[in-house]
## 1
Amino acid sequence: MEDFIRRLPKVELHLHIEGSMEPELMFELAQRNNVSLPYASVEEARNAYHFQDLQSFLDIYYQGADVLITERDFFDLTWAYLMRCKADNVIHTEIFFDPQTHTARGIAFDTVINGIYHALKQGEKELGITSQLIMCFLRHLSEEAAFETLEQAKPHLNRIVGVGLDSSELGNPPEKFARVFAEALSLGLKTVAHAGEEGPAQNIRDAISLLHVSRVDHGVQCVQDDELVSELALSRMPLTVCPLSNIKLRVFDSMTDHNIIRLLDRGLCVTINSDDPAFFGGYMTDNFLALYHAMAPTRSQFAQFTRNAIEAAFVSPEAKQAMMQKLDDFTVVNHLH
Ligand code: HPA
Ligand code: ZN
């Protein structure tokens, strides 16, 4: 089964590129850029990665991003993530980046997006991994700051498939960004938002009705509202669920308490993703394996997670068809048909 999980073709839809920075790379970039770190060693950094909730993680996550200065840094960060994708048989990935984390430190928007984008293009050419880029607004910052960020993105709209909303959910509800999301939609961008991670099910309803999202990131608190769960199943609204993240940030006490299998059984379009793998204990395969060890889902359930992610991806019908074919080829060989 573990071998099956490793080889299963996967599609990732919820990955913060800044959250894929392993401590080894963080130290390398700190040295390269003469940035001082609050840790004496890689080991000390890893030992600091224990969190009580989302905010305690975010404080450490934003601090780690300080070592990212040049276009080459953003390239190296993205390339390292793509190598993990290759090892995990991730065939397509849609990654988030947080421009405000960098522009607030005086790093140019262009430096950030150029580094990430060039690595993604090289990944497509050399590794055969296709990708999309989603720009997130930091919800603890103002609506005005989000509008400024959208303005900076305008010369790069051909490189960005959509906008998202991340950072502290509690106290920063979807309605705060309704106007900037409306402008993003008018520019032809898709919208997604973190909702119902720590916040209430109402945030999921509001992300759908006020931000017109095509996918909900996390969304696991939907179970507070049974009517909403039925609506999500009926509409096939995708939820990009992040199992290891939810355990590390204490959304669930343990993996055996996680609700992703129950949501799958109720017909929701749930997917498995790694969120911030360098901080939460693993990449895509690790998330699949953690679920396997806790709840022993079947092979066809694991294949369904990839099928759902393909359905939810921001790519053309032809590209979806090609990915479904890769999955079908795999399941036939593994006697799943
Ligand atoms: N939630 C909110 N903001 C984030 C996360 C998350 O899981 N990861 C990185 N930024
Ligand atoms: Zn996230």
## 2
Amino acid sequence: MKQIYLDYAAATPIDPMVLKKMEPFFKRQFYNPSAVYLAGRAVRQALEDARASVAQNLGARPAEITFTAGATEANNLAVQGIMRAFPDSEVLVSAVEHESVLEPAKFFRHRQIPVSRQGIVDIAKLEKMISPRAVLVSVGLVNNEIGTVQPLRDIVKMLNRLRKLRGSQGLPLYLHSDAAQAPNYFDLHTARLGVDLLSINGGKIYGPKQSGALYIRGGVRLRPLILGGGQENGLRSGTENVASVIGLAAALDIAQEKRPAEAKRVAQLRQLFIETLQRTFPQAVVNGSPKHSAPHILSVTFPGIDNERLMMELDERGLQVATGSACNAGSDEPSHVLAAISLGAPAIRSSLRFSFGRQTSQNDIKYALKTLSQLLKN
Ligand code: PLP
């Protein structure tokens, strides 16, 4: 049976070039990068070259890159790290953030920023919510369930105004963005984005799972979460996962190189999906923002249809899709993202997420829609 994978927002297959670059670091170059003999120093050099490469893609300095085991850890380091450095302060997170931002925020004084029906942060409301003790705002670049792209530049402009008013005596006001879903399709130059912290994830960019990094702009104060041997400039102790770091750097490089062409190609696939769907099942509702959407994520509500059942039936026909985020392990809680954009419980239970990637072709989309329309007609 033909297998069509439409869940690239959950996981991507590793790029063969990435795997090839990682391989020596499991075998010949297995040394601890902190070892002082020649072979250890060579591994350290490879690790630092990877850091420089990630930094370059983010328009950052190598010292501003901390490697982590995936985006969950990067987000935790950002939120918990900052909040531990500034006791009694407050963090504001958008209501559509991934759980790895929402959950750590709950340990501190926190507020959730409401979003519009299209999933976009309401900047005027955000501005009113920022009290003098707010130290961190966290707004993800691309939403993993509905694909909405947040207006970070406008948020930065507003934050800059507030920063000026605070002056040098007040608390800093940092902006963190979880960009786990962004590197395949978006420019991640941190100065252009205007962020102080940025999380990325290898597992979504054809690199290894549990690889990731947090960009921490020079001068930002935060506390480490993992203490020990002082690796990663004291911010993340533990012997570095060298192969994983090498894989992340290679994957990011390739993703950014392919970005312009892939963004265009995948956006066309998404459009083809939407147009065909609207012809065959006009009741279907596309969630998110028509104007500000990532090319690879499509959330659809099929009124009156049970999403779990439809997903299983699609699976039986070789089509792999998601009912929401695959990232909250085994949870059958209704999606907080769809709830935040004002979908009621029945609509949430009728929604599926389709996500596209490098191996998705026009034929895959046509086949998927044929299968989907057959099932919806029954
Ligand atoms: N943030 C976003 C936006 C995601 O989509 C995901 C995973 O799906 C994560 C964070 C967490 O990534 P990981 O589970 O690989 O740490």
